[in-house]
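Hi Y.,

Following your request, here is the sequence exactly as I used it, all 466 residues.
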Amino acid sequence: MERDVLNYPKFTGELKGSLHPHDFISNIHIFCLASHVPTDAYVTTLPLFLASDSIAMNWYDEEIKGKVTVWEELVKKFKQRFPPQLSSFQELYQVAWKRRDRNALFQDVEPGQKYKSLKVLFPLTEDAQEHILVTSEYREALSDAKRWFVGQTPSKTKFTEEDSYWRPPVSESEGVGEDQQMDIDIPDIDDTEWSNPICPYSTFIVCGMPGIGKTLFLYYVLVERLLRNLPTCLQTEPHRFIYWCAEGVSEIHLDRFRWTLPKDVWFLVDSNQDIICPHSDILASGARIIQAASPRRARLRWTEKQSAYTYKWFMKPSPLRELLMMRRYWPSPPTEKEVTTFVRDYGSSTRLIILYAARPDEYRLDLQSRIDRLTFDQLEKRVFEIRGLDVADNSVAHWIFGIYPGVQRDRITVNYSTSEVFGLLKAAFSENWESYARDIYRLFKSYRPMQGGAGYPASTITECSS
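Below is the corresponding structure, written out as tokens. Let me know if you'd prefer a different format.
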């Protein structure tokens, strides 16, 4: 047995290793069976196959040694700590950085269309998609991030006719012109440099409603940079991040991070309940940071305490045309009619469409139940949360209202998700609606970014008075 152990490759837990984590632990189980190792000694046998002073050995000493005695429990913890996506990070490095094989990652969605799909090599969201659609917003956001990082001002928001289902009526002060164009032609990646080391503009926050596609955007940015051999970090978990560079791929633990990153590195942070904001060591590293965040004050206010120049870039929801294109990549995709109807009635949250487009009655009952439980004071509180960009991810406010970009990307507009949703709200407060409608109207009218939404209660006040 000792000779077999010596000849067996040691597992390090690092991305540069050639051993697939789940294959490794399965092989150790087979080895123990074949070598007639007593069942109660399986756990203590594992360290023989771990490299000394490695990530894997440190994990064993801290999490397993003296704490776990049952093999099945160890296997469960091992698979949680060393998921199969570790080898997928290495695969992305080989395809994108080493071979620079764009055709292996991007494909035409339809002949004659400018849209591309992007192959997903490791899990990004709960919805296991093998491909994602590269939306027009992803290309716009990346283009504007590049502008910001070289000291230029991001472009004005480009609105199209397809935005009319969520965009409030245009005020006279906004005027007309390029921001009111009916169609746009977004190039692929423009010629702007990716960053300027002496430029102080170091942070770019892509902000949007939950389920709009912010995490997938970060993956798109990652791939585009790796194809150009540009060092990039991605953080989707609270205590570690993945770093792609010329030397390969590394998993870096934040409590041990003391590196000096290259001047041209970008750090991509997917904010969530566990990752509130970029880690202080990352902020001090000199990296250019792109943070993807929902409109939650805790995830945005960190910039107020930093000297870094920051741009908050608000993302538009995908138009129906793009939603119909991307549905082919969803698990159990709804029909074209189901998607179209759901968007018309309840809005264009990709996450909600995936979950409910095929069963809209269930969504309607759920939404109606949530609205019915609101008092008017609670509804007003939800409006102020939207106004202050401080909305919990699971708040019903995200189902009732939408936060969208204004004429400039760092400004917002707020409106009801759809007229159908407003109708459900009106029905819930029908007994005293005229009084409530006037209060809601004044509330929306008093804050410029929300003035477009004042039209809904205003129309019902007229109805009540006539």
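Confidence is low (pLDDT under 50) at residues 171-184.

Thanks again,
Q.
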